[in-house]
Amino acid sequence: MNQLLILGAGGHGKVMAEAAEAQGAWQHIALLDDRYALLDGTLRWPVLASIERAGHFVSEYSHAAVAVGDSKRRLEWLDMLAGLGFCIPTLIHPAAWVSPSASLAEGCVVMANATVQADARLGRGSIVNTGASVDHDCSIGDGVHICPGASLGGEVIIGHGSWLGIGCSVIQGVRIGSHVTVGAGAAVISDIGDAMTVVGVPARGISRGME
């Protein structure tokens, strides 16, 4: 069996560690976090050291994952881990449904009760969080976070680094650009350009951020 090191010991790190435990594929799980001196002994898994010391654990841990919400940092840390020689797993909670025809790049996480349907494609380091649904033929870019309870209709396209808030809905065939933020509970019924923040029902833009 393999050993798993998770970068980040916050709330998302705990949920990811429990998903990994539920897989039953890991002999040992440990975490890294810059607050390790405060956190070690407070969780069910050891918090060994700060993030910058990840390279010291390559010989002991075969695989490493990243548990941070910020998409830019998540992708940077995945690059760092790969460069250090870790294998980057895809973590799928056993209570999730992922179609055999779906494609998940390295570093993806699919949480409990989430669904990824036929021929959907998830980019590197993307998160399909608890109870979220990605329907058939969706194309999801790198570093996207689909938050708990969000629902995507079929053939939705999402660019890199976008964040879809809790409980939002996206109708079939919509295109969402890169670095977009969709507010919680929003209903997206038309295309959204890059770096926009949209909220409401139907979703309307309130700002354009920095890519």
Automatic annotation (TrEMBL):
Positions contributing to substrate binding: 69
Chain residues that bind acetyl-CoA: 145, 166
Listed InterPro entries: AcTrfase_PglD-like (IPR020019), PglD_N (IPR041561), Trans_hexapeptide_repeat (IPR050179), Trimer_LpxA-like_sf (IPR011004)
One matching Pfam family: PglD_N
PglD N-terminal domain ranges (all copies): 3-81
Site-annotated residues for Increases basicity of active site His: 137
Record-linked CDD domains: LbH_AT_putative
Family per similarity comment: Belongs to the transferase hexapeptide repeat family.
Protein name: Pilin glycosylation protein
Record organism: Mariprofundus ferrooxydans PV-1
